[in-house]
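User: I'm new to structure prediction. If I give you an amino acid sequence, what do you actually give back? Let's try with this one:
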Amino acid sequence: MGMHTIRRKPAWLRTNRLAVGPEASRILNIIRSRGLHTVCTSASCPNKGTCFAEGTATFLILGPTCTRGCAFCDVDRGVPHPPDPNEPARVAEAAAAMDLRFVVITSVCRDDLPDEGADMFTRTIRAVRARLPEAGIEVLVPDFSGRETLLGQVLAADPNVFNHNIETVERLTPRIRVRAEYRRSLGVLASAKRVAPSIPTKSGLMVGLGENEADLDAAFADLAEVGVERLTIGQYLQPSRSHPPVRRYVPPEDFEALAERARDAGIPHVLSGPLVRSSYHAADFPHPLREIR
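Assistant: Good question. You get back a string of structure tokens that encode the predicted 3D arrangement of the chain. For your 293 residues, that looks like this:
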């Protein structure tokens, strides 16, 4: 992949800095002392300061190294280490130490494993629920190559929310997502709704990669058709010069219009804003407690 110029961010994207207060430091110490990873730091999330300061984090299980390396993502690509059988217990311990009321669990893609990491999701859900029986749990899963048996294994652990991101529109998927397919991701969401109809399904979409209105409207319609009830829409931010450039910084006022179009397509709950990410304020979604734009 070639090197790209990084466009200067507009003012509305230059105000969110890493919090360094005592609560953020406490959260970092809990995570590091247990040898854990979070998507907040591994994927360079712009909200990590806010979330750490509020005592929340999204746990990244199965190590910090992905087997795919999608073009948009800042997670390292390479040959991962074998799964740590003690990781579920350590995640549960950290969640309890952080006194979380809502725990988000995600992972890198692990195409190297026979079950692509499904068993680790299941064990982590159960470990967290045993330590924090009152906490909500959301899983943000890879596509498991579309294998419904693996999706069923995760859903059998009864998470409160099942999330799988389509990330971008169909036209851009081959360029932006490695070894992933737009229609396969829709199939994952459809399968989850079919296997466990009582568990809300959720997805996430980035804008600013070169999509147009027709692309977005088609994506909203596709997500509604497979029963997705919750959608996050946020601005793509270029992590480095080796990542695809930002084609457009979408103004804050345009995000509400995107949310309305998604709702009109049939997705009832939509969070949309420049700094919205799939796990941001997950505990409050679909009824956020605060304005996040």
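You can read the tokens as a compact description of the fold. Here is one thing that stands out. Confidence is low (pLDDT under 50) at residues 288-293.
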